[in-house]
Amino acid sequence: MKKPGPLFLLIICGFFIHQNIQAQRKMMTPEFLKKGDTVGILATARKIEMATLQPGIKLLESWGLHVVIGKTIGKEDHQLAGPDWIRATDFQEMLDNPSIKAIWAAKGGYGTVRIIDRIDFSNFKKKPKWVVGFSDMTVLHSHINNMGIETMHALMAMNVKTATPEAIESLRKALFGEKLEYKMADHPYNKNGKASGEIVGGNLSVLYSILGSKSEVDYKGKILFIEDLDEYLYHIDRMMMNLKRNGYFDGLKAVLIGGMTEMNDNDIPWGKDALQIIQDILKDYKIPVIFNFPAGHIKDNRAMIFGKTVSVDVNESGSKVTFE
Questions:
Q1: What sign does the dihedral 167-44-121-36 (CA atoms) show?
Q2: Residue ranges of the chain that CATH labels 3.40.50.10740
Q3: In the beta sheet, which residues pair with residue 132?
Q4: Catalytic residue at 135?
Q5: What is the pLDDT of residues 270-321, one digit of tens each?
Q6: How crowded is residue 215: how many other Cβ atoms within 10 Å of its Cβ?
Q7: 38-176 in CATH: which number?
Q8: In the chain, which residues fall in CATH 3.50.30.60?
Q9: What are the Cα distances from residue 46, in Å, to 43, 74, 124, 132, 135?
């Protein structure tokens, strides 16, 4: 029998080294907040007025925190909160300001991807702080995850007025380092099982848009969370098929499906709703799947720490997700 050549051995060694690095990777946890700390609020994407942020500011102050308002609040460049350079500069200054312990997104929409490559994360890597938000902030969650640093997927400042008490309390717990655990009723599309792994993900459309870029996350061995808003149903199918055909689901430990909110259809119906589309595409994977996880573009948008190891338990009586 012919001995394997040096190139083959090199490839095999590289594979196992990669697998070992992934298994041993230790994520950095930014310092949790305490009373007296300062939170910066800014806009990395869509424009927003100061008045809209008042409930969020008052909430942070009620927790004993100080608030700094970014230069992007009240700025306007068509849909965006100022030109790219202003949004990038605002984020950079808060990132480098040692007195600011967390950066809270005021609003999502679209535009964060336009500034991500302008940001210098050198100081942030040395002493990370919490980056908080969801939706378009998925760009930052994914980009920062590749640095080995945890981030916080949670409601944004503009959402406080309409958020459920449970969502608000989960944000407080996450910011101050208290335990996060969520229990959910059974769903007919759930797939039973247990799993443990690092949680990643966010908005499906944003995850889809950064595939192939340096902000893309390695999904192997991870637990994937996805949610979306205001998409056509065939778009959901197209994005899920892309992930499937490119093998992104192959190495997952589990999948959590959050809000699939305000979906659109064509004059000729697609024939399935968003959850049915996702259920059909994931049906052949031997991993636990939870539907209607309480996160996303919904009022009950519970906080999660991306990059944290979580345990998932799904059975006939319901499901539970526990953050280490």
A1: negative
A2: 38-176
A3: 104, 152
A4: yes
A5: 999 999 999 999 999 999 999 999 999 999 999 999 999 999 999 999 999 9
A6: 23
A7: 3.40.50.10740
A8: 181-323
A9: 7, 10, 24, 16, 12
What's the CATH architecture for 181-323?
3-Layer(bba) Sandwich (3.50)
pLDDT in tens, 102-114: 999 999 999 999 9
> Most distant CA pair in the chain: distance in Å?
75
Q: Tell me which DSSP letter residue 309 carries.
A: E
Catalytic residue among 141, 153, 235, 297: 297
Options 141, 143, 170, 227, the catalytic residue: 227
What are the structure tokens assigned to 199, written together? 């949680």
Given a contact cutoff of 8 angstroms between Cβ atoms, the answer to whether 87 and 72 are in contact is: yes
User: What distance in Å separates the CA atoms of residue 314 and residue 295, rounded to the nearest whole number?
Assistant: 17
**Structure token digits, residue 28:** 């950095």
Q: Is residue 187 among the annotated active site residues?
A: no
Q: What is the DSSP string of 207-269?
A: HHHTTTSTT----TTEEEEEEEES-BHHHHHHHHHHHHHTTTTTT-SEEEEEEEES-B--SS-
Give the length of the chain: 324
Q: Band the pLDDT of 19: cuts 50, 70, 90.
A: very low
With beta carbons less than 8 A apart as the criterion, state whether 145 and 168 touch.
Answer: no
Q: Is 297 a catalytic residue?
A: yes
* Contact call for residues 252 and 287 (beta carbons, < 8 A): yes
Whether this prediction's pTM lies above 0.90 is answered by yes
